TrEMBL record:
It comes from the Eukaryota. Residues 54-344 form the FAD/NAD(P)-binding domain. It comes from Amylocarpus encephaloides. GO terms for molecular function: electron-transferring-flavoprotein dehydrogenase activity; flavin adenine dinucleotide binding. This is FAD/NAD(P)-binding domain-containing protein.
Length: 430
Protein backbone atom coordinates (compact mmCIF):
# COMPACT_ATOMS: atom_id res chain seq x y z
CA UNK A 1 0.00 0.00 0.00
CA UNK A 2 2.84 2.39 0.88
CA UNK A 3 4.49 1.57 -2.46
CA UNK A 4 1.29 2.55 -4.28
CA UNK A 5 1.05 5.83 -2.37
CA UNK A 6 4.66 6.69 -3.19
CA UNK A 7 4.05 5.86 -6.85
CA UNK A 8 0.95 8.04 -6.87
CA UNK A 9 2.90 10.99 -5.44
CA UNK A 10 5.62 10.47 -8.06
CA UNK A 11 2.92 10.43 -10.73
CA UNK A 12 1.53 13.75 -9.50
CA UNK A 13 5.02 15.27 -9.53
CA UNK A 14 5.61 13.94 -13.06
CA UNK A 15 2.28 15.45 -14.23
CA UNK A 16 3.11 18.85 -12.72
CA UNK A 17 6.53 18.83 -14.41
CA UNK A 18 4.86 17.91 -17.71
CA UNK A 19 2.37 20.78 -17.48
CA UNK A 20 5.12 23.21 -16.53
CA UNK A 21 7.10 22.07 -19.56
CA UNK A 22 4.05 22.61 -21.81
CA UNK A 23 3.52 26.05 -20.27
CA UNK A 24 7.18 26.95 -20.70
CA UNK A 25 7.08 25.94 -24.36
CA UNK A 26 3.89 27.92 -25.05
CA UNK A 27 5.33 31.02 -23.41
CA UNK A 28 8.69 30.72 -25.18
CA UNK A 29 6.96 30.17 -28.55
CA UNK A 30 4.82 33.27 -27.96
CA UNK A 31 7.91 35.32 -27.02
CA UNK A 32 9.80 33.98 -30.05
CA UNK A 33 6.91 35.04 -32.32
CA UNK A 34 7.18 38.62 -31.03
CA UNK A 35 10.99 38.65 -31.30
CA UNK A 36 10.80 37.38 -34.89
CA UNK A 37 8.69 40.43 -35.76
CA UNK A 38 11.71 42.67 -35.14
CA UNK A 39 12.68 44.37 -38.43
CA UNK A 40 16.20 42.95 -38.59
CA UNK A 41 14.84 39.41 -38.19
CA UNK A 42 12.13 39.68 -40.85
CA UNK A 43 12.33 37.02 -43.56
CA UNK A 44 14.66 37.78 -46.42
CA UNK A 45 14.39 35.72 -49.58
CA UNK A 46 17.37 33.35 -49.81
CA UNK A 47 19.98 34.25 -52.44
CA UNK A 48 19.18 32.62 -55.81
CA UNK A 49 22.23 30.35 -55.64
CA UNK A 50 21.53 29.23 -52.05
CA UNK A 51 20.12 25.85 -53.05
CA UNK A 52 17.66 23.93 -50.91
CA UNK A 53 18.43 23.46 -47.24
CA UNK A 54 15.73 21.11 -46.06
CA UNK A 55 14.87 19.52 -42.76
CA UNK A 56 12.85 16.55 -43.96
CA UNK A 57 10.40 14.71 -41.72
CA UNK A 58 9.23 11.31 -42.91
CA UNK A 59 5.84 10.39 -41.43
CA UNK A 60 3.30 12.74 -39.83
CA UNK A 61 1.68 10.91 -36.95
CA UNK A 62 2.18 11.46 -33.22
CA UNK A 63 5.96 11.79 -33.58
CA UNK A 64 6.40 13.42 -37.00
CA UNK A 65 3.42 15.81 -36.93
CA UNK A 66 4.38 17.10 -33.49
CA UNK A 67 8.03 17.47 -34.53
CA UNK A 68 6.93 19.38 -37.65
CA UNK A 69 5.07 21.90 -35.51
CA UNK A 70 7.95 22.26 -33.08
CA UNK A 71 10.48 22.75 -35.86
CA UNK A 72 8.29 25.12 -37.85
CA UNK A 73 7.69 27.32 -34.82
CA UNK A 74 11.24 27.15 -33.43
CA UNK A 75 13.24 28.18 -36.47
CA UNK A 76 13.60 31.94 -36.97
CA UNK A 77 11.87 33.45 -40.03
CA UNK A 78 15.21 34.27 -41.64
CA UNK A 79 16.37 30.68 -41.33
CA UNK A 80 17.90 29.24 -44.46
CA UNK A 81 16.14 25.96 -43.59
CA UNK A 82 12.77 24.80 -44.78
CA UNK A 83 10.76 22.02 -43.11
CA UNK A 84 9.45 19.41 -45.56
CA UNK A 85 6.94 16.82 -44.34
CA UNK A 86 6.39 13.66 -46.38
CA UNK A 87 3.32 11.62 -45.46
CA UNK A 88 1.16 9.35 -47.64
CA UNK A 89 -2.06 9.65 -45.58
CA UNK A 90 -4.55 12.34 -46.51
CA UNK A 91 -5.47 12.65 -42.79
CA UNK A 92 -3.95 11.99 -39.40
CA UNK A 93 -4.89 8.40 -38.50
CA UNK A 94 -6.05 8.28 -34.89
CA UNK A 95 -5.11 4.68 -34.14
CA UNK A 96 -6.52 4.60 -30.61
CA UNK A 97 -10.11 4.49 -31.80
CA UNK A 98 -9.69 1.96 -34.61
CA UNK A 99 -10.71 -1.12 -32.53
CA UNK A 100 -13.86 0.68 -31.29
CA UNK A 101 -14.84 1.93 -34.76
CA UNK A 102 -14.37 -1.56 -36.21
CA UNK A 103 -17.45 -2.45 -34.16
CA UNK A 104 -19.50 0.66 -33.40
CA UNK A 105 -21.12 2.37 -36.37
CA UNK A 106 -21.49 6.01 -37.25
CA UNK A 107 -18.23 7.46 -35.92
CA UNK A 108 -15.64 6.12 -38.36
CA UNK A 109 -15.02 9.51 -40.02
CA UNK A 110 -13.81 10.78 -36.63
CA UNK A 111 -10.76 8.51 -36.76
CA UNK A 112 -9.26 10.58 -39.58
CA UNK A 113 -8.34 14.09 -38.53
CA UNK A 114 -7.58 16.72 -41.18
CA UNK A 115 -3.98 17.83 -41.37
CA UNK A 116 -3.41 21.52 -41.56
CA UNK A 117 -4.08 24.19 -39.00
CA UNK A 118 -1.76 22.65 -36.40
CA UNK A 119 1.27 23.96 -38.32
CA UNK A 120 1.49 27.46 -39.79
CA UNK A 121 1.22 26.71 -43.51
CA UNK A 122 3.82 29.21 -44.71
CA UNK A 123 6.52 27.50 -42.66
CA UNK A 124 6.55 24.10 -44.25
CA UNK A 125 6.22 22.21 -47.46
CA UNK A 126 3.76 19.31 -47.24
CA UNK A 127 4.16 16.43 -49.67
CA UNK A 128 1.54 13.67 -49.79
CA UNK A 129 3.74 10.80 -50.91
CA UNK A 130 5.71 7.86 -49.54
CA UNK A 131 9.49 7.71 -49.10
CA UNK A 132 10.88 4.64 -50.83
CA UNK A 133 14.53 4.92 -49.90
CA UNK A 134 16.78 7.19 -47.93
CA UNK A 135 20.08 8.07 -49.58
CA UNK A 136 22.96 10.02 -48.02
CA UNK A 137 21.81 13.38 -49.39
CA UNK A 138 18.18 12.94 -50.36
CA UNK A 139 15.07 10.81 -50.06
CA UNK A 140 13.51 9.12 -53.04
CA UNK A 141 9.72 9.38 -53.19
CA UNK A 142 7.35 6.81 -54.69
CA UNK A 143 5.96 9.53 -56.98
CA UNK A 144 9.43 10.00 -58.51
CA UNK A 145 10.60 13.19 -56.79
CA UNK A 146 13.94 13.38 -54.99
CA UNK A 147 13.94 15.64 -51.94
CA UNK A 148 17.33 16.69 -50.63
CA UNK A 149 17.91 17.03 -46.91
CA UNK A 150 20.44 18.50 -44.58
CA UNK A 151 18.68 16.98 -41.58
CA UNK A 152 16.30 14.03 -41.66
CA UNK A 153 13.83 12.91 -39.03
CA UNK A 154 12.49 9.39 -39.51
CA UNK A 155 9.09 9.05 -37.82
CA UNK A 156 7.62 6.22 -39.83
CA UNK A 157 6.18 4.33 -36.84
CA UNK A 158 5.00 0.78 -37.32
CA UNK A 159 2.60 -1.01 -39.59
CA UNK A 160 0.35 -4.04 -39.21
CA UNK A 161 0.36 -6.43 -42.15
CA UNK A 162 -3.20 -7.48 -41.34
CA UNK A 163 -4.46 -3.90 -41.35
CA UNK A 164 -7.47 -3.34 -39.08
CA UNK A 165 -7.99 -3.12 -36.18
CA UNK A 166 -4.42 -1.83 -35.65
CA UNK A 167 -3.89 0.16 -38.84
CA UNK A 168 -5.79 1.19 -41.94
CA UNK A 169 -3.99 0.14 -45.10
CA UNK A 170 -5.48 2.87 -47.29
CA UNK A 171 -4.03 6.36 -47.55
CA UNK A 172 -7.20 8.36 -48.30
CA UNK A 173 -9.84 9.10 -45.68
CA UNK A 174 -12.69 7.93 -47.92
CA UNK A 175 -11.11 4.52 -48.36
CA UNK A 176 -10.22 4.31 -44.67
CA UNK A 177 -13.78 4.95 -43.52
CA UNK A 178 -15.01 2.41 -46.09
CA UNK A 179 -12.64 -0.20 -44.63
CA UNK A 180 -13.94 0.45 -41.12
CA UNK A 181 -17.55 0.14 -42.32
CA UNK A 182 -16.78 -3.15 -44.08
CA UNK A 183 -15.33 -4.47 -40.83
CA UNK A 184 -18.41 -3.33 -38.87
CA UNK A 185 -20.70 -5.15 -41.32
CA UNK A 186 -18.62 -8.32 -41.21
CA UNK A 187 -18.67 -8.37 -37.42
CA UNK A 188 -22.41 -7.63 -37.38
CA UNK A 189 -23.10 -10.52 -39.77
CA UNK A 190 -20.85 -12.98 -37.94
CA UNK A 191 -22.21 -15.46 -35.43
CA UNK A 192 -18.88 -16.83 -34.23
CA UNK A 193 -15.98 -14.41 -34.08
CA UNK A 194 -12.39 -15.40 -33.29
CA UNK A 195 -9.89 -12.68 -32.37
CA UNK A 196 -6.19 -13.58 -32.28
CA UNK A 197 -3.83 -11.53 -30.09
CA UNK A 198 -4.32 -10.54 -26.46
CA UNK A 199 -2.62 -7.15 -26.56
CA UNK A 200 -4.56 -3.90 -26.34
CA UNK A 201 -6.10 -4.03 -29.83
CA UNK A 202 -7.30 -7.64 -29.41
CA UNK A 203 -8.69 -7.16 -25.91
CA UNK A 204 -10.52 -3.96 -26.87
CA UNK A 205 -11.94 -5.37 -30.08
CA UNK A 206 -13.16 -8.61 -28.46
CA UNK A 207 -14.71 -6.68 -25.55
CA UNK A 208 -16.48 -4.20 -27.88
CA UNK A 209 -17.79 -6.96 -30.17
CA UNK A 210 -19.25 -8.88 -27.24
CA UNK A 211 -20.55 -5.69 -25.63
CA UNK A 212 -22.31 -4.62 -28.82
CA UNK A 213 -23.56 -8.10 -29.75
CA UNK A 214 -23.97 -10.16 -26.55
CA UNK A 215 -25.65 -12.98 -28.50
CA UNK A 216 -22.53 -13.67 -30.59
CA UNK A 217 -19.83 -16.16 -29.66
CA UNK A 218 -16.59 -14.20 -29.25
CA UNK A 219 -13.36 -16.11 -28.63
CA UNK A 220 -10.02 -14.43 -27.93
CA UNK A 221 -6.93 -16.59 -28.53
CA UNK A 222 -3.57 -15.48 -27.10
CA UNK A 223 -0.28 -17.38 -27.30
CA UNK A 224 0.94 -16.25 -23.86
CA UNK A 225 -0.29 -17.34 -20.44
CA UNK A 226 -1.70 -13.88 -19.67
CA UNK A 227 -3.49 -11.16 -21.62
CA UNK A 228 -1.64 -7.83 -21.87
CA UNK A 229 1.47 -9.81 -20.91
CA UNK A 230 3.82 -6.88 -21.60
CA UNK A 231 2.17 -4.94 -18.77
CA UNK A 232 1.92 -5.54 -15.01
CA UNK A 233 0.04 -8.36 -13.33
CA UNK A 234 -2.83 -6.16 -12.11
CA UNK A 235 -3.71 -5.06 -15.64
CA UNK A 236 -3.41 -8.66 -16.86
CA UNK A 237 -5.92 -9.79 -14.24
CA UNK A 238 -8.25 -6.82 -14.82
CA UNK A 239 -8.39 -7.41 -18.56
CA UNK A 240 -9.11 -11.13 -18.14
CA UNK A 241 -11.85 -10.41 -15.60
CA UNK A 242 -13.32 -7.69 -17.79
CA UNK A 243 -13.58 -10.02 -20.77
CA UNK A 244 -14.96 -12.91 -18.73
CA UNK A 245 -17.64 -10.67 -17.21
CA UNK A 246 -18.73 -9.71 -20.72
CA UNK A 247 -18.83 -13.38 -21.73
CA UNK A 248 -15.81 -13.50 -24.04
CA UNK A 249 -14.25 -16.95 -24.15
CA UNK A 250 -10.50 -16.40 -23.55
CA UNK A 251 -8.06 -19.13 -24.62
CA UNK A 252 -4.52 -18.59 -23.34
CA UNK A 253 -1.24 -20.33 -24.17
CA UNK A 254 -2.39 -21.39 -27.65
CA UNK A 255 -1.37 -20.27 -31.12
CA UNK A 256 -3.47 -20.13 -34.24
CA UNK A 257 -2.24 -22.82 -36.63
CA UNK A 258 -4.72 -22.66 -39.50
CA UNK A 259 -8.12 -21.50 -40.62
CA UNK A 260 -10.59 -23.66 -42.55
CA UNK A 261 -12.99 -21.29 -44.29
CA UNK A 262 -15.06 -24.19 -45.71
CA UNK A 263 -15.55 -26.01 -42.40
CA UNK A 264 -15.72 -22.62 -40.65
CA UNK A 265 -13.26 -23.31 -37.89
CA UNK A 266 -9.71 -22.58 -36.78
CA UNK A 267 -7.16 -25.03 -35.42
CA UNK A 268 -4.99 -24.07 -32.45
CA UNK A 269 -1.52 -25.35 -31.52
CA UNK A 270 -2.94 -28.01 -29.16
CA UNK A 271 -5.03 -29.41 -32.01
CA UNK A 272 -8.19 -27.91 -30.56
CA UNK A 273 -10.71 -26.63 -33.11
CA UNK A 274 -12.80 -23.51 -32.53
CA UNK A 275 -15.87 -22.59 -34.61
CA UNK A 276 -15.19 -19.47 -36.60
CA UNK A 277 -17.16 -17.50 -39.19
CA UNK A 278 -14.81 -14.54 -39.10
CA UNK A 279 -11.19 -14.38 -37.93
CA UNK A 280 -9.49 -11.11 -36.96
CA UNK A 281 -5.73 -10.88 -36.43
CA UNK A 282 -4.64 -8.35 -33.81
CA UNK A 283 -0.95 -9.12 -33.60
CA UNK A 284 2.22 -8.55 -35.53
CA UNK A 285 3.00 -4.86 -35.82
CA UNK A 286 6.38 -4.18 -37.38
CA UNK A 287 8.49 -1.01 -37.34
CA UNK A 288 8.60 0.72 -40.73
CA UNK A 289 12.38 1.00 -41.03
CA UNK A 290 12.90 -0.56 -44.48
CA UNK A 291 13.54 2.81 -46.12
CA UNK A 292 16.94 2.88 -44.39
CA UNK A 293 17.92 -0.71 -45.17
CA UNK A 294 20.17 0.06 -48.14
CA UNK A 295 21.84 3.07 -46.52
CA UNK A 296 22.55 1.73 -43.04
CA UNK A 297 21.41 -1.84 -42.48
CA UNK A 298 23.48 -2.03 -39.27
CA UNK A 299 21.19 0.59 -37.73
CA UNK A 300 18.26 -1.80 -37.96
CA UNK A 301 17.65 -4.30 -35.13
CA UNK A 302 16.42 -7.86 -35.80
CA UNK A 303 13.03 -6.60 -34.55
CA UNK A 304 13.07 -3.99 -37.32
CA UNK A 305 13.51 -1.03 -34.94
CA UNK A 306 16.08 1.65 -35.69
CA UNK A 307 18.97 1.70 -33.28
CA UNK A 308 19.31 5.21 -31.91
CA UNK A 309 21.66 7.02 -29.56
CA UNK A 310 20.22 8.80 -26.53
CA UNK A 311 20.29 11.99 -28.65
CA UNK A 312 17.92 10.16 -31.04
CA UNK A 313 20.49 10.31 -33.83
CA UNK A 314 20.59 6.93 -35.51
CA UNK A 315 23.40 4.68 -34.28
CA UNK A 316 25.63 5.21 -37.30
CA UNK A 317 28.42 7.75 -36.74
CA UNK A 318 28.65 8.43 -40.46
CA UNK A 319 25.06 9.78 -40.46
CA UNK A 320 24.90 12.30 -37.59
CA UNK A 321 22.23 14.32 -39.42
CA UNK A 322 19.64 11.49 -39.36
CA UNK A 323 17.35 11.28 -36.33
CA UNK A 324 14.54 8.87 -35.52
CA UNK A 325 11.69 8.97 -33.02
CA UNK A 326 8.42 7.25 -32.18
CA UNK A 327 7.49 3.60 -32.67
CA UNK A 328 10.18 3.03 -35.31
CA UNK A 329 13.02 3.87 -32.89
CA UNK A 330 14.45 1.50 -30.33
CA UNK A 331 14.59 3.73 -27.28
CA UNK A 332 14.22 1.00 -24.69
CA UNK A 333 10.49 1.14 -23.87
CA UNK A 334 8.64 -2.15 -23.43
CA UNK A 335 5.34 -0.69 -24.55
CA UNK A 336 5.94 2.24 -26.88
CA UNK A 337 2.98 4.58 -27.21
CA UNK A 338 1.99 8.00 -28.47
CA UNK A 339 3.26 9.79 -25.37
CA UNK A 340 6.73 8.35 -25.82
CA UNK A 341 6.56 9.26 -29.51
CA UNK A 342 5.75 12.89 -28.74
CA UNK A 343 8.31 13.17 -25.98
CA UNK A 344 10.97 11.85 -28.34
CA UNK A 345 9.75 14.22 -31.08
CA UNK A 346 10.47 17.08 -28.69
CA UNK A 347 14.04 15.94 -28.02
CA UNK A 348 14.77 15.16 -31.67
CA UNK A 349 13.42 18.47 -32.97
CA UNK A 350 15.23 20.47 -30.27
CA UNK A 351 18.43 18.67 -31.25
CA UNK A 352 17.89 19.38 -34.95
CA UNK A 353 17.38 23.08 -34.17
CA UNK A 354 20.62 23.09 -32.15
CA UNK A 355 22.56 21.31 -34.89
CA UNK A 356 21.09 23.60 -37.58
CA UNK A 357 22.43 26.55 -35.55
CA UNK A 358 25.84 24.88 -35.53
CA UNK A 359 25.76 23.97 -31.83
CA UNK A 360 27.50 20.83 -30.59
CA UNK A 361 25.21 20.42 -27.58
CA UNK A 362 22.48 17.79 -27.88
CA UNK A 363 19.69 16.86 -25.44
CA UNK A 364 19.21 13.23 -24.48
CA UNK A 365 16.07 11.13 -24.16
CA UNK A 366 15.38 8.86 -21.22
CA UNK A 367 12.07 7.00 -21.00
CA UNK A 368 9.96 7.64 -17.89
CA UNK A 369 7.65 4.94 -16.53
CA UNK A 370 4.73 7.40 -16.23
CA UNK A 371 4.69 7.86 -20.01
CA UNK A 372 3.83 4.17 -20.34
CA UNK A 373 0.30 4.82 -19.08
CA UNK A 374 -2.38 2.89 -20.91
CA UNK A 375 -6.13 3.36 -20.91
CA UNK A 376 -7.73 0.07 -21.92
CA UNK A 377 -11.41 -0.11 -22.73
CA UNK A 378 -13.15 -3.24 -21.49
CA UNK A 379 -16.46 -3.05 -23.31
CA UNK A 380 -18.52 -0.11 -24.47
CA UNK A 381 -18.85 1.58 -21.08
CA UNK A 382 -15.84 0.53 -19.00
CA UNK A 383 -12.11 1.18 -18.97
CA UNK A 384 -9.05 0.82 -16.78
CA UNK A 385 -6.11 3.20 -16.77
CA UNK A 386 -2.85 1.61 -15.74
CA UNK A 387 0.49 3.00 -14.56
CA UNK A 388 3.41 0.85 -13.48
CA UNK A 389 7.12 1.27 -12.81
CA UNK A 390 7.98 -2.43 -13.09
CA UNK A 391 7.54 -3.05 -9.36
CA UNK A 392 4.34 -1.28 -8.32
CA UNK A 393 1.14 -0.69 -10.26
CA UNK A 394 -1.74 1.77 -10.13
CA UNK A 395 -5.07 0.84 -11.70
CA UNK A 396 -7.94 3.29 -12.14
CA UNK A 397 -11.21 1.70 -13.31
CA UNK A 398 -13.75 4.08 -14.86
CA UNK A 399 -17.19 4.21 -16.44
CA UNK A 400 -17.11 5.45 -20.03
CA UNK A 401 -19.98 7.48 -21.45
CA UNK A 402 -18.77 8.43 -24.93
CA UNK A 403 -18.90 5.71 -27.58
CA UNK A 404 -16.49 7.80 -29.69
CA UNK A 405 -13.95 7.66 -26.85
CA UNK A 406 -13.74 11.43 -26.55
CA UNK A 407 -11.84 11.67 -29.80
CA UNK A 408 -13.16 15.23 -30.19
CA UNK A 409 -10.34 16.11 -27.76
CA UNK A 410 -7.84 14.80 -30.25
CA UNK A 411 -9.28 16.93 -33.05
CA UNK A 412 -8.90 19.97 -30.82
CA UNK A 413 -5.40 18.93 -29.86
CA UNK A 414 -4.42 18.88 -33.54
CA UNK A 415 -5.89 22.36 -34.03
CA UNK A 416 -9.17 21.53 -35.78
CA UNK A 417 -12.83 21.86 -34.83
CA UNK A 418 -14.47 18.50 -34.20
CA UNK A 419 -15.69 17.12 -36.60
CA UNK A 420 -15.46 19.72 -39.35
CA UNK A 421 -13.81 18.33 -42.42
CA UNK A 422 -13.65 18.60 -46.15
CA UNK A 423 -15.31 15.19 -46.31
CA UNK A 424 -18.95 14.31 -46.72
CA UNK A 425 -19.42 10.62 -45.97
CA UNK A 426 -16.72 8.86 -47.93
CA UNK A 427 -15.95 11.49 -50.53
CA UNK A 428 -14.24 14.88 -50.47
CA UNK A 429 -16.63 17.86 -50.54
CA UNK A 430 -16.60 19.71 -53.85
C1 LIG B 1 -5.13 0.04 -32.03
C2 LIG B 1 -4.13 0.91 -31.33
C3 LIG B 1 -4.49 1.61 -30.19
C4 LIG B 1 -3.56 2.43 -29.53
N1 LIG B 1 -3.94 3.11 -28.41
C5 LIG B 1 -3.06 3.95 -27.81
C6 LIG B 1 -3.45 4.71 -26.68
O1 LIG B 1 -4.58 4.62 -26.21
N2 LIG B 1 -2.52 5.56 -26.11
C7 LIG B 1 -1.27 5.68 -26.63
O2 LIG B 1 -0.48 6.50 -26.12
N3 LIG B 1 -0.86 4.95 -27.69
C8 LIG B 1 -1.72 4.09 -28.29
N4 LIG B 1 -1.32 3.35 -29.37
C9 LIG B 1 0.08 3.42 -29.83
C10 LIG B 1 0.26 4.65 -30.70
O3 LIG B 1 -0.71 4.68 -31.73
C11 LIG B 1 1.65 4.60 -31.31
O4 LIG B 1 2.61 4.49 -30.30
C12 LIG B 1 1.87 5.89 -32.11
O5 LIG B 1 0.97 5.92 -33.19
C13 LIG B 1 3.30 5.98 -32.60
O6 LIG B 1 3.41 7.16 -33.33
P1 LIG B 1 4.49 7.33 -34.49
O7 LIG B 1 4.35 8.73 -34.97
O8 LIG B 1 5.80 6.88 -34.01
O9 LIG B 1 4.10 6.29 -35.63
P2 LIG B 1 2.73 5.93 -36.40
O10 LIG B 1 1.54 6.40 -35.64
O11 LIG B 1 2.84 4.50 -36.73
O12 LIG B 1 2.82 6.78 -37.71
C14 LIG B 1 3.82 6.66 -38.66
C15 LIG B 1 3.49 7.59 -39.80
O13 LIG B 1 4.52 7.47 -40.76
C16 LIG B 1 3.96 7.36 -42.04
N5 LIG B 1 4.90 6.58 -42.88
C17 LIG B 1 5.24 5.29 -42.73
N6 LIG B 1 6.11 4.92 -43.69
C18 LIG B 1 6.32 6.03 -44.44
C19 LIG B 1 7.12 6.28 -45.58
N7 LIG B 1 7.87 5.34 -46.15
N8 LIG B 1 7.09 7.53 -46.12
C20 LIG B 1 6.34 8.51 -45.55
N9 LIG B 1 5.57 8.32 -44.47
C21 LIG B 1 5.56 7.10 -43.93
C22 LIG B 1 2.65 6.63 -41.81
O14 LIG B 1 1.74 6.88 -42.89
C23 LIG B 1 2.18 7.23 -40.50
O15 LIG B 1 1.40 8.37 -40.66
C24 LIG B 1 -2.24 2.52 -30.04
C25 LIG B 1 -1.88 1.82 -31.19
C26 LIG B 1 -2.80 1.02 -31.83
C27 LIG B 1 -2.40 0.28 -33.07
Amino acid sequence: MLGKRILFVKLVIFSIKLYLDILFRSVSTAIRKQVYKLPFLKSKPPPPDAGERNIVIVGASFAGYFAARLLATSLPPNTPFRVVVIEPHSHFNFTWVFPRFCVVKGHEHKAFIPYGKYIPENLIRWVQDRVQTVERTHVQLKGGEKVSYEFLLVATGSGATDGLPSRVREDEKGEGTRSLRKMQTKIEETKRLVVVGGGAAGVELAADAKGQYPEKQVVLVHSREALMNRFGMELQVASLEGLKTLGVNVILGERLVSEDVVEKNVTLSSGRKVDCDFLIHCSGQRPASDILASLTSTSINPSGHLRVKSTLQIADDSLPNIYACGDVADTGEHNPNARHAMQQAKIASDNIVLAARGKKKQYTYKPHWAESVIKLTLGLDKSVTHFGNGKTELLFPAEEKDLALMCDGSWKHWGVTPFEDDFEGETPKK
